[in-house]
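Meet my pick.
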Amino acid sequence: MLVVPAQGVAQAYAAGKLSGIQAASTVAAPKRGDFSRYVENAVRTALNTVRQGEHTAAAGMQGKASAQEVVQAVMSAEMTVQSVVAVRDKLVSAYLDIMRMPI
């Protein structure tokens, strides 16, 4: 486990060194006509991050993971869920805008 001083957290996050936190660059950029695979990969990455947070939290309750590991994994899962909800809200908003367009 990597211990990072408070002033180095942003740099460590940007470099992807904090455990349990995956940068957006871990999802491969879509190729032309490959949007569905891009979305599938993004959803799989989000699910894996949330599952890892749950697993680490359970390990923390059993005394197998440190408090720092638990906090990092849970915060990563929380950020992932917030991101997924924000994307969902944008998609619903775009759908409603399209439905309101005159034909």
Summary: The first helix runs from residue 9 to 14. The chain has three helices and no strands. The two ends are 57 Å apart (CA to CA).
